[in-house]
Specification:
Length: 473
């Protein structure tokens, strides 16, 4: 018998067999690892390119976009009440890019020394559909105020999914737009029309039309005089509009909002109110913000002709003012009832098919069709995604066992499980339950604020700072 093959000879034979497509176990493993590593590497390159190179929020690109906006303003293609300050007077200074994805641009700037946020759904002015009426006008011809209000109203109805010819909607639109005779309201403010009745130039019409094609802008502009819980539009230039700068939420912050920054810039509690004459504590600020969330839900459910549904509820889509008022700052996924029903009206084979982000309905498995009625509510999702992390025993620590805190936790749990139901009777019963639990939450939070005020008078203190935790990821 010959000598046994050496280890090197065995490995060499294995390699030779591998080269001849006769694989041994070790070579198969090596080949599989090499293939998997190459796959991960290539997919990583694609991800890096898409995330950091293609849509990366760079200052150079943002400045080029604003420079192009100003070039079109100087050419007379677009206009707005912010253009002169941005492009000529230098009263608008670029700060940084906040967000950029699929053309949507969000930029932080300072206008006359005050911070603002510039937004546009699409990067370029030419990307928006032009107003067809302009094609039939002579270059110097202007559109009358009555025609402007008529076309703007139609576009707003279409954008918000409101029914044309429904007189119950006229109050909402008239409050948001104002009458042509009055010469005020959204149309006049959009193009800086002032208080008088006048005609609109082609640049003003084209700019207005690009703004009205942005659903978020339309909702904010129509509702900003009707509720304190949406961000204020402070100006526009072409397809970009400016919003008030607010303290936005973050999922990685256990308090969601930067309370220490608001505490420094904030105002003292109102005279005679809960906790007047002293600085707010962190937990007291949380309770006040929670009360403002409840107030926002009530406004969106009852103050408009149709209920306003929030289908993307997360900390980043809300902000707070100095007085701790909660403000919806990203309403791309906010819909009035008529449009919400159309979005939910889909074919289905399971309950998951009837979930439109945070707005859900039920699947009729017999008809294979989703109900057009939303089964959950704004309050239910806010209780689940915002209140439960805030008032969880883990974060409350030793205070979690206090009677009012236990009562609050139970109310939040019940709130997050309250369902409006599919049938009309179930919906009405669910609506009553929702209102009851909302009132309980309001009462408990108010009592907690009173207890906090009494504790402070006794000399107890609490730091306003906020810690970061992984609990809210």
């Amino acid at each position: 018998m010959g000598d046994p093959p050496t280890r090197g000879g065995a490995w060499g034979g294995c390699v030779l067999r591998w080269l001849g497509l006769r694989l041994c176990r070790r070579s198969t493993l090596v080949f599989a690892l090499l293939w998997f590593g190459s796959w991960v590497f290539l997919n990583g390159l694609v991800l890096v390119h898409r995330t950091f190179l293609s849509d990366y929020c760079t200052n150079d690109k943002s400045r080029r976009i604003l420079n192009r906006l100003c070039e079109e303003y100087r050419e007379g293609s677009l206009t707005g009440d912010m253009c002169e300050d941005l492009c000529v007077q230098g009263r608008v200074s670029y700060q940084r890019c906040l967000y950029y994805e699929n053309g949507k641009k969000v930029i932080e700037a300072r206008w006359n020394g005050s911070p603002v946020v510039l937004k546009s759904k699409l990067e370029n002015f030419s990307s928006y559909e032009p107003l067809g009426l302009l094609e039939y006008q002579e270059p110097g011809e202007e559109l009358s105020p009555l025609d402007m209000v008529f076309y703007a109203t139609l576009e707003i109805r279409n954008s918000l999914g409101l029914e044309v010819g429904n007189s119950s909607l006229e109050n909402l639109l008239s409050q948001g737009l104002g009458g042509a005779a009055a010469g005020r309201g959204a149309v006049g403010r959009i193009v800086g029309g002032g208080a008088g009745v006048r005609s609109y130039s082609q640049a003003e019409l084209a700019s207005l039309w690009s703004l009205l094609q942005q659903e978020e802008y339309t909702i904010l502009r129509v509702l900003q005089d009707l509720t304190p819980h949406v961000a204020m539009v402070t100006g526009s230039c072409g397809h970009f509009y400016a919003l008030e700068y607010l303290w936005a939420g973050h999922a990685w912050d256990q308090n969601i909002f930067p309370l220490e920054e608001v505490s420094v810039a904030g105002e003292s509690p109102p005279s005679g109110g809960l906790g007047s004459g002293r600085r707010w504590r962190a937990r007291e600020m949380i309770h006040r913000i929670a009360l403002s969330f409840l107030d926002m839900v009530w406004h969106f459910d009852h103050d408009f002709t149709h209920r306003l549904h929030l289908c993307d509820i997360k900390p980043e889509n809300f902000a707070i003012r100095k007085d701790l008022t909660v403000v919806a700052i990203d309403v791309d996924m906010a819909f009035f009832d008529p449009k919400m029903r159309d979005l939910l009206d889909q074919n289905c084979s399971s309950q998951d098919d009837c979930n439109f982000f945070d707005c859900a309905s039920r699947c009729d498995l017999r008809k294979k069709r989703c109900s057009r009625r939303r089964s959950n509510s704004n309050l239910q999702v806010i209780c689940d995604k915002i209140f439960r992390p805030w008032f969880s025993p883990t974060l409350l620590g030793a205070k979690a066992g206090l009677p009012l805190q236990v009562e609050l936790q139970k109310a939040v749990q019940e709130c997050s499980e309250t369902d409006r139901g599919e049938e009309e009777e179930e919906e009405q019963r669910g609506e009553r339950q929702s209102q009851d639990v909302q009132q309980r939450l309001h009462d408990i939070l108010t009592r907690l604020l009173k207890e906090g005020a009494v504790t402070d008078e006794g000399g107890a203190t609490e730091r306003t700072g906020h810690a970061h935790t992984s609990l809210n990821f």
